[in-house]
Amino acid sequence: MLRKGFLLGLAGCLAPLVPAGAQPPRVPDSVLQLVVAVADGWDSSHAKLMPFSRTGAGRPWQPAWPRASKVNLGKAGLAWGNGVLPVPHGQPGVPSKRERDQRAPAGLFRIGTLYGYAPESVPGLRLPTYRVTTRDCWIDDPTLPSYNRHVMVDPAHPPPWYAKQRMRLGDFAYEFLLEIRHNADPPMAGHGSAIFFHIRRGPEKPSHGCTTMARPDLVNLLRWLDAGAQPHYVLLPRPVYQEWQGRWGLPAMP
């Protein structure tokens, strides 16, 4: 009975369980920039976002903007994603991210390459960048071997799936695509793909799972991010953020 009670008391904690005496997983010491987004709950399609920085491991997080900005999430809300730190997949009533579920992945994720085809460049970028052309695709079909990967094809002799997987669509919302490395190391088929920061389609328009924002806010974020600071992104519902703030070593909520 003692063992059963002990396990019940740990419901909602990180999985797998942390061995006795071990330190729980936290934001890696090498991470000096952290983009934080907090939603009201699992079914919320909006969140407040604030970038934070620190000067070294164990140093306090400092906000990079004077106030948090509003961002849009997936139409259906959030779901546990596959990121840097373990999260409790399989919780009753809490979904895990799946392809085309229209939910944004929750957890801690590396920030990767900036893809795009905006007509103007952002001065002073300190991120790896890639100029998208008609040859570039991002695979969101779980049956294809390069699922959740950027691939290049010959547009003069495209594969059958090209039209549905191409990245250059002439769409203003995708002029900047900053990679959120959900389900990336390695990808698991069907667990969600093509998750980015990008320009929102309207102040209240949710996404299919990406984090979207006003163009000026996204440009400011791109200017601030520095690949040398190992930037990461954390997205959580507010109750979970409150519970895990100390455990993960997160800043005060925006």
Please, could you describe this protein's structure?
- It is a single chain.
- The chain is built from four helices and 13 strands.
- The protein has helices at residues 2-9, 162-165, 215-224, 238-248, and strands at residues 33-39, 46-53, 62-63, 69-72, 77-80, 103-116, 129-131, 136-138, 150-152, 176-180, 196-199, 211-213, 232-237.
- Strands 1, 2, 3, 4, 5, 6, 7, 10, 11, 12 and 13 form an eleven-stranded mixed β-sheet that branches. The chain has a two-stranded antiparallel ribbon with strand order 8-9.
- The termini are far apart.
- The model is unreliable at 1-21 (pLDDT under 50).
Keywords:
4 helices, globular, eleven-stranded mixed β-sheet, 26% strand, alpha/beta, 254 residues
Describe the structure in brief.
By secondary structure, the protein is α/β, with parallel strands linked by helices.
The helix content is: 10-25%
Overall mean pLDDT score?
A: 92
Gap between N and C termini: 41 Å
**From the helix content, strand content and strand pairing, which structural class follows?**
alpha/beta
> In what range is the share of β-strand residues?
25-35%
Rg is 19 Å
